[in-house]
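[09:14] KT: can someone run the structure on this one? pasting the chain below
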Amino acid sequence: MTATLGAFVLGTPDPRALADFYRAMLGWQEAERSPEWVRLKPPDGERPGLSFQLESDHIAPTWPQRPGTQQMQAHLDLQVDDLEAETERACALGATLREHQPQKDVRVLSDPHGHPFCLFLPGA
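[09:31] RB: done, structure tokens below
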């Protein structure tokens, strides 16, 4: 048997609200929804999904990392065609542009619950 990645899961104090943000960002469909768990799936259904799990004591990671703070252990990379337009759209949906930007063709943002994610251009 070969293992296959089925989904990436983000912990959050409000799974439904965070799923709504990513559903709007990605244009994905909701496959399951409860107060403690929401699962999104891509339209083609062939790529791994994205799920959101209730963590009432969630602490948002810092970016960039600093000793003694909650460390980022993973982040999402979202490929876009227009970096500036998609950065503006993400912010309009509730994301925050982070002050520290380590690369020219990548934008680091935080989703509404503080998880860092990156927007990047093809080839970046």
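[09:33] KT: thanks! The chain has a mean pLDDT of 92.
[09:34] RB: yep, looked fine to me
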